[in-house]
Amino acid sequence: MIDKTGRPEWLKESIYAARTSRRVRICFGLGLITLLILIFTFAFAPSGEEGDGRFHRVYHWAGDIWHSDGKQPPVNHTFPIDVGYPGPTEMGKPAALADEDNFTGDPARGNSPIQTTIPEVGRFDLFKHMGNMSPYFSAPDFGVSTQKFRALAKGCRIERVHILHRHGSRYPTTSSSANLIRKLFRDMKATLQFSGPLEFLNTYDPERLGLELLVPLGRQQLFESGVQHEMEYGNLIDADLKDHGKLFIRAGSQQRIVDSAIAFMQGMFAQNWTQKADLEVQIEAAKFNTTLAPNFACSRAGREETEPGLVWGRDWYNEYLRNAVQRLKPYAKGVELDGQLLNAMQQLCSYDTVAFGRSDFCGLFTEQEWLDYEYFWDLVFYGSYGAGSEVGKAQGVGWVNEFMARLTKTAWNESTITSENRTFNNDPQTFPVDRRFYADFSHDSLLTNVLAALNLEEFNQPLDLHRPDPRRKFRTSTIAPYAGRFVFEEISCEKPSSDIHARWFGSGRQSGSKSVQAMQTDDGREHYIRLLINEAIVDLHQLKGCDSRADGMCQRDQFIKALAGRNEWAHWDKCFD
Ligand SMILES: *[C@@H]1O[C@H](CO)[C@@H](O)[C@H](O)[C@H]1NC(C)=O
Ligand SMILES: *[C@@H]1O[C@H](CO)[C@@H](O)[C@H](O)[C@H]1NC(C)=O
Ligand SMILES: *[C@@H]1O[C@H](CO)[C@@H](O)[C@H](O)[C@H]1NC(C)=O
Ligand SMILES: *[C@@H]1O[C@H](CO)[C@@H](O)[C@H](O)[C@H]1NC(C)=O
Ligand SMILES: *[C@@H]1O[C@H](CO)[C@@H](O)[C@H](O)[C@H]1NC(C)=O
Ligand SMILES: *[C@@H]1O[C@H](CO)[C@@H](O)[C@H](O)[C@H]1NC(C)=O
């Protein structure tokens, strides 16, 4: 029977009993509480295989209902570009090189709209010795003849490619010591007076530069790189587009990194790049994990005790600029010139040139002072981000772990997590390992971290704090200039016949014959890794276990084995007190 309120008989009776008896009310209450506890226990406990005996089955059933039964199609990731965290930025004032250029040399600037010929230092190109502030240029050889071995041997082809790319030319960072000149003018403007070679400072506008953002020249560098890599690896890109619809590209969230990735893809695909590529932007900020800015996950990063590079650099500029201080001192009134200020002026030569096309600071220094300035950056980078820092390798190994997953086409290994973001890396949509073309966009510091974590012996040699070795391999200008790039190529080759054998292994290299027997894989081809840093081949023989070869390549299995100990030597634990 159902009455006019719509309540069935049993409910009416229960309500009546509850109204009249306190004991029944308590029973109802307890029953309700027990029911709630049960629901919450099953619903919010993690679902999984663990969980013992009696409750396991019911737990699993309830958990599956709550967590979804796994049969629902996964929500498709949409790769938003605007994830926030662009970092601090400040736009600069416009350039006007056509008005300001008074250089009477070669008037044809072509595709390089900056004045890099400095009459005061003759033929020496100081722009190739500016450390991380060098505009992109192809690196000279690192010990392998790139000219001889760049062309693949007969029967070889490139299977897959992994690119780690730095952003292009930018304004000074917020923490840059180049900003000291701006501060000097803000604080002392009224009393400053310059003459002789420093005369130009009387009309210099120290507020003209912005902060952090990519400048148009930086955009050009990345656009050209996109064009270049589309030409080099268009077949791999095309195959990825056919198999996966879109390319998979990653970038850190800072504005210049995102802008660089976009310029690169515009070089590849023009304005329609969004239809051709997914850009995964990973947040660069405190408390976030990303291998593209590992410093945020490494709490001891950025301290003087773990990153002595700046201290080494400071000692060094006080030494190499001693003569310049004496030389220029008489022309500055109202300020005591010192090594720090002159080093800042050397940096402004680079910053003004990439932002405005030319700089009067460039002519103030001698060839030797530019070479020593280059070494200043080597000390800073080696000591703070490279093998000279106890957290240098630690910050690079996260990217290397990801690279290894991609190389072996296996899921990322969560048990060795360092700066990786497990949310991204445990999802094949946000960390695919089945692509032929990968490109990640990041900072000079990360390129240096990764170089250290790879344990390439020649690049990890200690630097003398007072005597630059002209034959050193660690040179920031050639490793991480603006728009610098590490390109790892996976190459496969037919089993070499004897004449190709002679070309590859050189004459009399005894390890050659050994490698011919090894490494026959199921597709009947031999597999190799080749590393190009800014287009120059790196000799991978410096890794333990890689055969010595004239072409610098390493057999794929040997390479993977050589890096098996990476998490031990990288010491992620040093990132924490
Ligand atoms: C996700 O994308 C795949 C492939 O494009 C499609 O088949 C699937 O229906 C999509 N899933 C959802 C939930 O939209
Ligand atoms: C260009 O102008 C700067 C000052 O603006 C001056 O110091 C320099 O000598 C000039 N160079 C030439 C080649 O005229
Ligand atoms: C770009 O995309 C639009 C819209 O899909 C299309 O009409 C146009 O033809 C594309 N342009 C190029 C150069 O592919
Ligand atoms: C990992 O990345 C995701 C997606 O950007 C983000 O929501 C999450 O906060 C990140 N986690 C950490 C610890 O960085
Ligand atoms: C993950 O790394 C650990 C530690 O190096 C190793 O023991 C384990 O075998 C790895 N797992 C896979 C699936 O490779
Ligand atoms: C972030 O990194 C830390 C340190 O390796 C790790 O403990 C944590 O699980 C990571 N978080 C995510 C979401 O990846």
Explain the overall architecture.
There is one protein chain. Strands 1, 3, 4, 6, 7, 8, 9 and 10 form an eight-stranded mixed beta sheet that branches. A two-stranded antiparallel ribbon has the order 2-5. It folds into two domains: 9-44; 97-485, Phosphoglycerate mutase-like (Rossmann fold, 3-Layer(aba) Sandwich). The radius of gyration is 30 Å and the shape is globular. The relative contact order is 0.14. 40% of the residues lie in helices and 10% in strands. The chain contains 20 helices and ten strands. The protein is α/β, with parallel strands linked by helices and 577 residues long. The protein binds 2-acetamido-2-deoxy-beta-D-glucopyranose (6 copies). The chain crosses the membrane at residues 26-45. This is Phosphoglycerate mutase-like protein.
Short structural description:
With 577 residues, the chain is of the alpha/beta class. The chain has 20 helices and 10 strands. It has 2 domains: 9-44; 97-485, Phosphoglycerate mutase-like (Rossmann fold), CATH 3.40.50.1240.
Topology:
Layout lengths: L8 H12 L1 H23 L8 H15 L29 H4 L45 H4 L6 E11 L12 H10 L4 E2 L21 H29 L2 E6 L2 H15 L7 E6 L26 H12 L1 H7 L3 E2 L5 H18 L10 H18 L7 H17 L13 H4 L11 E6 L1 H10 L22 H4 L5 E10 L3 H8 L5 H7 L7 E9 L2 E2 L16 E2 H7 L3 H5 L7
Parallel strand pairs: 1-6, 3-4, 3-6
Antiparallel strand pairs: 1-7, 2-5, 7-8, 8-9, 8-10
Helix pairs in contact: 1-2, 2-3, 7-8, 9-12, 13-15
This protein binds 2-acetamido-2-deoxy-beta-D-glucopyranose (6 copies).
GO molecular function, one term: acid phosphatase activity
InterPro entries: Acid_Pase_AS, His_Pase_clade-2, His_PPase_superfam
Protein name: Phosphoglycerate mutase-like protein
